[in-house]
Design brief:
The chain folds into two domains: 48 residues, Arc Repressor Mutant, subunit A, CATH 1.10.10; 143 residues, Orthogonal Bundle (Tetracycline Repressor, domain 2), CATH 1.10.357.10. The chain is 77% helix and 0% strand. The chain is built from ten helices and no strands. The radius of gyration is 18 Å and the shape is elongated. This is TetR/AcrR family transcriptional regulator.
Length: 193
């Protein structure tokens, strides 16, 4: 028997596929259940409704990003900023993340937007702030960690996530992530080092 974590991953994959095809408003829990070969009753029991399903997917996506970020940065060195940037951009600009942001933008209840914001500040932001605190302790940056982090976040993704969510640009690849992360690192070190 497949464990629940694996089953939820299959359901999430089905939901993201339908989201890409039909949009948030055009998909249903029944369609997700059919695509995932699950019962509609199971989906409603596990998630409550479509918004609940996407809330769980957002939390899992942000939790996975936070876990990946936690593996970067020891020992804290100047190049840590570029690696953190690459990992953050990979997470923020992944097809799953873009899809979840599109769902949040289409959710009239604003529950998904709130879940995204809360998850960012509870799961991802503390990991980044901790990394910047270690960089300050190591003498890599000379300003308050929160100030350097705010500058870095302004420089790193810029408006790329929004442009990807709206379809104005396609999702950039690893090479562009690496280049953008290196530029953000250089700028932050020049201004805050």
């Amino acid at each position: 028997m497949t464990d629940r974590h694996e089953r939820e991953a299959e359901i999430a994959e089905a939901a993201l596929g339908l989201l890409a095809e039909k949009g948030y408003g055009g998909m249903s829990m029944l369609a997700v259940a059919k695509r995932a070969r699950a019962s509609n009753e199971t989906l409603y029991r596990w998630y409550g409704d479509k918004t609940g399903l996407f809330e769980v997917m957002i939390a899992r996506n942000l939790g996975a990003l936070a876990e990946r970020l936690e593996t970067v940065g020891d020992p804290p060195e100047a190049h840590t900023l570029a690696r953190l940037g690459e990992v953050l951009l990979e997470g923020q600009l992944s097809p799953a993340s873009i899809g979840l942001h599109r769902a949040a933008a289409a959710d009239a209840s604003d529950r998904l937007g709130a879940t995204l914001a809360e998850g960012w500040y509870l799961l991802v932001y503390p990991v980044l702030l901790s990394a910047f605190s270690r960089l300050r302790s190591a003498g890599v940056i000379a300003v308050e960690p929160a100030d350097a982090l705010a500058l870095w976040l302004d420089l790193l993704p810029g408006d790329r996530p929004l442009r990807c969510v709206t379809g104005a640009i396609t999702i950039p690849g690893e090479v562009l992530h690496r280049a953008r992360a290196a530029r953000a690192q250089a700028a932050v070190l020049a201004l805050c080092g």
